[in-house]
Amino acid sequence: MYDSFIDITIVGTYDPVGVDDDQQTANIVGALLQFPTSYTFTVVGKNSEEEDGGDDYANSVKSIVESILGNDAQIEMRVVPRGSKFTKVTIKVDVESQGMITNIYDELDSLDATVMKF
Length: 118
What we know:
- The chain has 4 helices and 4 strands.
- By secondary structure, it is of the alpha+beta class.
- Strands 2-3-1-4 form a 4-stranded antiparallel sheet, covered by helices on one side.
- The protein has helices spanning 2-10, 26-32, 55-69, 98-110, and strands spanning 37-46, 76-82, 86-95, 114-117.
- Helix 3 (55-69) runs antiparallel to helix 4.
């Protein structure tokens, strides 16, 4: 009885088309943003053993974003050390769709060094 009530209250303007489960992060983003738009990606990665200050990780993050958006994409990047073991990278770019956001997050997640993304 209550399940029907809950389903009815969720359906509305932001109800996603297609699959809707806990793995579909872009559904809400796509419903709330109007594209093209500026979007900020923030990731935290583990530094390599060579004590590079996070440069390798930051360069990997930038390369991923450029591979999806193109080398001519306007990228605002900020790199902040989080102690000696981690680096926080924030990248602000213009995106054309929720699919681009999802692709970038998926690729950032594929980096072994990535420990958090938001």
